[in-house]
Amino acid sequence: MKYKACEIISVGTELLLGDIINTDAAFLARELAALGIPCYYQSVVGDNPARLRTTLETALSRSDLIVLTGGLGPTADDLTKETAAAVMGKTLVLHEPSYARIRDILTKRNFPETENQKKQAMLPADAVVFDNDYGTAPGFAMTAQTENGEKTMILLPGPPRELEPLFSERVRPYLAAQSETMFCSVNIGMYGIGEAAVGHILRDYMEHGQNPTVAPYCGEGEVRLRLTARGNTEEACRQLCLQLAEEIRGVSCEPYKPGTMNDYIFGIDCDSLQEALVGLLRRKHLTVSAAESCTGGYVAKRITDIPGASEVLSGAYVTYSEETKQAMVGVQAETLRDHSVYSAEVAAEMARGCRASVGADIGIGITGVAGTEDAVVTQNGVSVTVPAGTVYIACADAGNVTVEKLQLPPGRRAPSEAREYVRRRASSHALFMALRMAEKL
Amino acid sequence: MKYKACEIISVGTELLLGDIINTDAAFLARELAALGIPCYYQSVVGDNPARLRTTLETALSRSDLIVLTGGLGPTADDLTKETAAAVMGKTLVLHEPSYARIRDILTKRNFPETENQKKQAMLPADAVVFDNDYGTAPGFAMTAQTENGEKTMILLPGPPRELEPLFSERVRPYLAAQSETMFCSVNIGMYGIGEAAVGHILRDYMEHGQNPTVAPYCGEGEVRLRLTARGNTEEACRQLCLQLAEEIRGVSCEPYKPGTMNDYIFGIDCDSLQEALVGLLRRKHLTVSAAESCTGGYVAKRITDIPGASEVLSGAYVTYSEETKQAMVGVQAETLRDHSVYSAEVAAEMARGCRASVGADIGIGITGVAGTEDAVVTQNGVSVTVPAGTVYIACADAGNVTVEKLQLPPGRRAPSEAREYVRRRASSHALFMALRMAEKL
What we know:
2 copies of one chain form a homodimer. By secondary structure, the first copy, chain A, is of the alpha/beta class. Chain A folds into 3 domains: 6-176, Molybdenum Cofactor Biosythetic Enzyme, Chain A; 182-268, Alpha-Beta Plaits (2-Layer Sandwich), CATH 3.30.70.2860; 274-440, Maf protein. In chain A, 40% of the residues lie in helices and 26% in strands. In chain A, strands 2-1-3-8-7-6 form a 6-stranded mixed sheet, with helices on both faces. The first copy, chain A, has a 5-stranded mixed sheet with strand order 14-13-15-18-19, with helices on both faces. In chain A, helix 12 (298-304) links the parallel strand 13 and strand 14. In chain A, helix 11 (273-284) packs parallel to helix 16. Chain A is elongated and about 85 Å long. In chain A, 50% of the residues are buried. The interface between A and B is large, with 79 and 82 residues. Strand 2 (39-45) of chain A pairs antiparallel with strand 2 (39-45) of chain B.
């Protein structure tokens, strides 16, 4: 790639006040990384010419590509373009095609024409213009020779619904045309192992891996491992990543965890556990149902997040009380009495019950204590305290039921976060158990 | 306020790669603005000591308060603390209380103790330590005299679920104590009105409101209006906000929307529609059930997000196929045949059916087309195309059923986002309809 160092500058007082979240910077960072353009800094500065000027001067001293968003509006406080052009030693002239395009948009919207619109069409004479099909302000690139070498600035509108398609359709091809090297990433999705353990187990790959590089990202109980390769073709990069992914499957997790990495991998280039599960069930023509207590519909919601879920799920239950556990999925009163509602036996009956009722291949049953307060239940007439974070998860097929007990540490979280954590982890665990069961069917 | 200029620096290569969105910066910017601390710059830099050092030096030259997040982890590439301390001329020493706290956490998690943990407990001797109840890395503030005057740096952990409560519980009071003026905010939650309309309707309050100030924040179909007052006591500030909130309830929404603002308000200082609904149902000793098709458990999941949901929901259904709509909640075959599965009539039968089956006061029925592809259904033997984003939502009490049809524009969203948008909006609309129905019972 022609560019050795890039940075992203977002202009807007609303960002400095925290009124909006800077999704533009994340979008651009992802896109630039995918193009193989190394990006070392992001900055946010308000609609203030003096502060923007010093920010631009600092950027020019250390980067050769600067991507700016925001401040291209028609009003007097939008000064990004004027300031950037001055720093680059460019004069703005009226860009007739953009002016015609803007007048056309305004006519269609029945907006009166003002001098402000002319301001939006003023561009450096030698700019590469990116026509904006999603708003009035055009994007553009300008290049100048400085004492630190050739510098390019790309200015783009701030609203994400303009920026994102404009970048994808016009700026990405402009940048890709300047590169000889391709980059490609493959993501490995894992469940049941923490980021810290993955970091220890794959330490050598992460510290010394050059092509592909290896980096872990964590979520709630899920870890994503990103392999990034560079090469001459996308296919060659992808093959390098997939070869390494196969190698990683065989790596032993001892002494941090039992088994090999393969035991924790739910998918390659698969965004989520639910995507892995729905994909596998569809390929094998299998179906699933669920009876959920503490997760309250979270498992069903996640399964139906995935397009095509109707092929694998026809119905599911939220059985939040003892009565609905009996009425909806046939949990026995004796089981509730003898083992209490928070028990492996009740989870198993819920899994078998929803499976039978809906006629699914796999049934999931979940019962437990979300939140931060311990629950007190009656078991055989005796009061028993069940700690918060105790969850029983059952998976049933035609012949077998597997039940696993989780004891999720709610500890160091705000109560609402602890509740979400327990519910999310329990639903993830259920999806992972169903995936492993479906693999064997 | 003691601080004249503040800036926020986020440290993390995952931000530079666009793997995560910088919600921390927006959170801190909002909090600092609410404290009356002016913030002129935000920066993102990777886990690279040399680049972090120059970023810190630039920040020290122009700001007197610098808030850093990220890079406080236990591994070797987490160097924020070491670099910041060096720039401030501080030596790190073992902070015994933090070390004991970290060892305690690890013991409970059955993690082996390593030198890495000691690294997390190394702090400047004169630091003000913010105990982290939500993770291992402590936050802290350090102050130094420089040639440009007194400078303060505050270092905080990067994960939002640690940063946000830690800031609210420990850092905000620390900063507030350095000010003579108190700030206090009240949030008004609204549904069914867009941020742009709210902006027009409350323009005068937003542009000229001094105390309280008024600012809107938007979510998916939900708008939050934040009123921030300053005064000598928190109670006085809160009263100012609540008085203005009452005034805003009466503001006409014409010509942008029918009615007054009150018609769109679901709660004051209430985080979500589900919190408003569960709270109201509990106060009125009412119960709710749901039969969900395209939302697939999203409504039940959101209701059970709220602690105490078991008082208001005992059971609910995901009826994703025509068969389960009939078997689980008694939708009639004739209704499906005559009106098709995507119809007000089917939604109404789902609402009545789940209400009757569970014995709830209010039943919710939802059927529609999520995602980006139009659906083709058979109605009275004729093929009918139903556009993506068409959703029928019914709410039933003992005597009445109300059905509303949404036609949600997928807009220029990626398919997975369009699906989530339709499902989230439909679930929000159902919660809002149930809230309005419960108000009348």
